[in-house]
Design a protein that fits this description.
The protein is of the alpha+beta class. About 35% of the residues lie in helices and about 20% in strands. Helix 7 runs antiparallel to helix 8. Bound molecules: alpha-L-rhamnopyranose.
């Protein structure tokens, strides 16, 4: 399945030391808290449960941990909440002198399935190394054990793999030092609707746990800054933590290491030094403009935006260079646009919408930062919108995409967000979408966000709330402490990666209900 991963190691990249230096000065403070496991649980199979498992509380954690454990023992701890941080404990021996090392195994799970399903049976196409586990060999007892890696979990299975028959062990002071760059306080929002209030709370924890040295997409996986995720996190951040310096840092990071032609990468690594990944996505690069636009609206920080505006504009120019003479984004096998995780989805129509949407944002920024190019940008915008009509199939009542003239949710959603056609036309399109749902549906909360946004844009507030409750509310009902990267209510095992245990269960792009709830005062 190598075609799902871009490998462009021939690409020449450029560094901009001044942007990188600015990003460095904006390195956030990491706030820490200590949390302790609450319960010991057992996990049973349950066909009605979301991932096929249900937890039963055996006892409170503390009394259980006063026991001695021997080779072959194992137990599962429940923190009671999703956490990102560092595990530590004191390991003591009981009995005869410990005459052999203690071999312990730790398996961390955001969900129950990760601590139950053996990792060696994983057959997905993303590296198995993402699955969170650790083997610890303790040579000298007693020992204070501090695991070096940061883990992301609610459940922790501890297996005593091997001791000697001469001694047993006890675990003392098992705790997790949680980390986040989100400030402890968050703008409070009172929502009368209990279900929405809970959805808001889960959204906020999702964002908090993704906020680290950068806005990470998921603290379990991929643990890095993705541009598409950043865009949605920045929205939610503006109505919750308002940590604008972190957004600014991320904007500088993308600007600091770009492709030779100026294209920003789809994601960035920050350690051991800042390196942009050699993955480029048509839509994600364009969204740089939208993030900058939103950042400016929120902060009025014209100094930063002035400095980064040329980079944003470059993304528009590169996007336009993919259009044919008529103004349509050209399809082909030579490009990548994300839009949604969907094997069959043709991306042309939705990408046309994304380009128009971002061009419109560029126009707003140009009014302030480069008014002389306004007429040219406006001309492009009109041209692209005009060209979009070629994708309209009057008989079907939908926009089509690609040479196969595919009808998908994604294309319709993005045409509405791009404001193609007048309001009546967009309303007809949405009605068609609601009454005749296309076979090519929505696979991620990411595309769902845009669907909800399109509903709000057309004034369909009640429908938007109903859909939000049916989707994010369902995750809450199924026990989510944080919102998941993937969720298909019809197919709970869905994973684009070939196994649900590799999915991320605290994922940036899923935290947007807090924005809808607060923005629309629900
Ligand atoms: C996955 C992650 C990430 C997303 C990319 C496109 O690796 O879910 O959040 O932005 O795909």
């Amino acid at each position: 399945m190598a075609q799902k991963i871009q490998k462009n190691d021939h690409v020449i990249m450029k560094r901009d030391p001044s942007f990188l230096a600015k990003a460095e000065t904006l390195l956030p403070t990491i706030h820490q808290n200590i949390i302790y496991p609450q319960n010991i649980i057992t996990i049973a199979q349950d066909p009605d449960a979301i991932d096929g498992y249900l937890a039963h509380v055996v006892s409170e954690a503390q009394p259980y941990l006063n026991h001695c454990f021997q080779s072959g023992d194992s137990f599962i701890l429940d923190l009671g909440t999703h956490a990102v941080g560092y595990l530590s404990f004191l390991c003591q021996s009981v009995g005869s002198p410990p005459d052999a090392p203690a071999h312990l195994k730790f398996t961390f799970g955001e969900t129950l399935c990760e601590v139950v399903e053996p990792f060696n049976q994983y057959r997905g196409w993303l590296s198995q190394s993402w699955l969170q586990q650790h083997d610890e060999y303790v040579d000298v007892l007693p020992a204070q054990v501090n695991l070096a890696r940061r883990y992301c979990f609610r459940y922790l299975k501890i297996e005593v793999i091997s001791l000697s028959p001469k001694y047993q062990i006890m675990f003392k002071d098992i705790k997790v030092k949680t980390v986040s760059s989100a400030p402890d306080s968050c703008i409070e929002y009172h929502c009368d609707d209990i279900q929405l209030a809970k959805i808001d709370q889960v959204s906020v924890l999702t964002l908090r746990n993704c906020m680290q040295e950068v806005f990470e997409d998921g603290p379990k996986r991929d643990r890095r800054l993705w541009l598409g995720d950043l865009r949605l996190q920045a929205l939610v951040n503006s109505v919750t933590f308002q940590h604008y310096d972190l957004v600014r840092r991320c904007l500088y990071l993308f600007a600091g290491h770009r492709r030779e032609d100026g294209m920003v990468s789809a994601n960035i690594f920050v350690r051991p030094e800042v390196v942009a990944d050699d993955t480029f996505l048509f839509d994600y690069s364009l969204f740089y403009v939208d993030i900058l636009y939103h950042y400016f609206n929120e902060t009025k920080d014209s100094q930063t935006v002035k400095e980064l505006w040329p980079i944003a504009l470059k993304q528009i120019e590169l996007g336009l260079s993919r259009c044919d003479k008529q103004g349509l984004v050209t399809d082909g096998d030579d490009w990548w646009s994300f839009i949604d995780w969907h094997d069959q989805l043709n991306k042309q129509g939705a990408s046309q919408g994304v380009l128009i949407y971002c061009l419109d944002k560029a126009l707003h920024l140009a009014q302030i930062f480069e008014p002389e190019i306004l007429p040219k940008l406006q001309q492009h915008l009109d041209h692209l919108k005009q060209a979009s009509h070629q994708l309209w199939d009057a008989e079907l009542g939908f926009y089509v995409s690609g040479s196969q003239r595919q009808v998908s949710y994604a294309t319709q959603i993005w045409m509405i967000l791009a404001d193609v056609g007048d309001l009546a036309h967009q309303q007809t399109l949405m009605n068609n979408l609601l009454s005749s749902p296309p076979e090519i549906g929505m696979n991620t909360p990411y595309l769902r966000h845009h669907y909800i946004l399109a509903l709000f844009k057309l004034g369909l507030h009640e429908k938007a709330i109903e859909e939000m409750k049916a989707y994010w509310g369902k995750m809450v009902e199924l026990g989510a402490d944080t919102f998941w990267e993937l969720f298909d209510p019809e197919n709970p095992n869905y994973s684009p990666y070939g196994s649900k245990i590799i999915n991320s269960y605290c994922h940036a792009w899923s935290c947007t209900p807090a924005w809808f709830i607060r923005q629309y005062s629900l």
